[in-house]
Amino acid sequence: MKRALSFSLVGAMTLVATSSQAAIGYDSRSMAMGGTGVASASYLTAAFYNPAQLTNYDDSDDVGLLFPSVGLSASDQNDLLNKLDTFQDIDKEYTPGHKDEWDAALKALDNSTVAVNLNVGMAIAIPNQYLSTALFVQNQTNVFAQTHIDSRDFGAGFTPVANQMNSTVRGLAGGTLDIGLAMGKAFDVKDHHFSVGITPKMQTLYMINYGGTPADFEIDDFDYDKNGNDKSTFNLDLGASYQATDSITIALAGRNLIKQSIENNLDGDATYVVEPKFTLGASYDISWLQLNLDVDLNETKYFEQIDYSTQYVRLGAELNAWDWAQLRAGYAASLTDAGSMLTAGIGLHPFGAFGIDLAGQYSTDNGYGASAQLIFTF
């Protein structure tokens, strides 16, 4: 398992090194609609957002398979990666006559952060009137690199030597591997249609903690065997949906209701956290048009040592042409320092038995992302 985790983390960092990309949504359809899903997910993607949505299926749906769903996004708001390359080039050719240029390049690195998100998932769902179920696997990896520039590295009294620098670049990668069984049940109370759902899951937390100076920090130096660790635990998701009318659904979901964390002190203290996340959603669906709204009720934080969190108000829309083709768009307004996002995508589902969904996103913090997934229904 450690080899697999090491490969996925280093791969994510390598990808972000070649492009400036931060992620939203756990599957391609949701990403295209601004990350909405709490009230709009189908039975096949309900396990990722709200298990109560497992009851959102048609009479013709018997078994659904989502395999795979892959999404990658990242942001480099202050252009850290390019600035780091520039500084390292200057440092390698350093002479006393380059001190002012060296100082300016080092100062340009201060308080910069790169954030990367990688999602990989699969699900097999069996909807029915008794107890709809879905077995799913989801891997979510969050990678950060952040700088701290120390004033002691400036001035005539300091001669640049990499291993004597006080300034640092810190790389942290953390994530979760969830394997769970989502269950949803619908029932009526005096002509009011409700659904509830629960997802018990085994959860593995993992992280890598790596640091260096601006002169010697290399992204591909991440080594799980040397700098990483993991632990297995248990977690729980809950959800509820209320179908106010034939076309309006209101829903509430809580994910990761048991707070978990993992510490890594191999290269300085670091703690990756998984905290409860609550989202309120609403959806208006009239077959050919769906309009969605999701509101995060609390912030999502990733590392205790990094001042970075996300919280969004999400809007999404889908135009559906006879269930064969879909055109989607969305917007996620950030309530934190993370960038807001524009999203778009398409779905192609000929004959209803096979489908492919594609999505892309652009964020205001110099971020880009993309996602793709395959769907089979029987």
UniProtKB/TrEMBL annotation:
Signal sequence coordinates: 1-22
Pfam families (alphabetical): TraF_2
Keywords, comma-separated and alphabetical: Signal
The name this protein goes by in its record: Conjugal transfer protein TraF
Organism of this sequence: Vibrio stylophorae
